[in-house]
């Protein structure tokens, strides 16, 4: 396994845990009518590799599921991330 592969795996694990936790925190704050995490922050974390964690957080906590941009963008980010990992794997195997 390449050293870069190991770091990428660690990165994706951590960013997805972060996304999941952020959706949890935002949901709890929404219930308590407290200051919230911005939608842009949630989407940014999804875009930076946390799409799986974001989608899981949306599903588990029933949070942001009715907003159109949250129905589309995290899934789109996930597709781009899968494609990017696939292309990176092809490139590294040369």
Structural notes for this entry:
There is one protein chain. This protein has one domain (3-88). Helices cover 82% and strands 0% of the residues. It has three helices and no strands. Helix 1 packs across helix 2 (39-61) and helix 2 packs across helix 3. The longest helix has 29 residues, at 3-31.
Write the topology of this structure.
Blueprint: H1 3-31, H2 39-61, H3 68-92
Helix pairs in contact: 1-2, 2-3
Keywords:
94 residues; mainly alpha; 0% strand; elongated
What's this entry about, in short?
This protein is mostly helical and 94 residues long. It has one domain. It has three helices and no strands.
Give the count of structural domains. 1
Helix content: over 70%
Q: How would a textbook summarize the main sheet?
A: none
User: How would you classify the quaternary structure?
Assistant: single chain
Principal-axis shape equals: elongated
Taking all residues together, what is the mean pLDDT? 93
Secondary structural class: mainly alpha
SS summary, helix count: 3
Which percent range describes the beta-strand content?
A: under 5%
Rg estimate, integer Å:
15 Å
Q: List the helices and strands in order.
A: HHH
Please report the total strand number as a whole number: 0
In the predicted model, the low-confidence regions spanning at least 5 consecutive residues are none
End-to-end gap: 14 Å
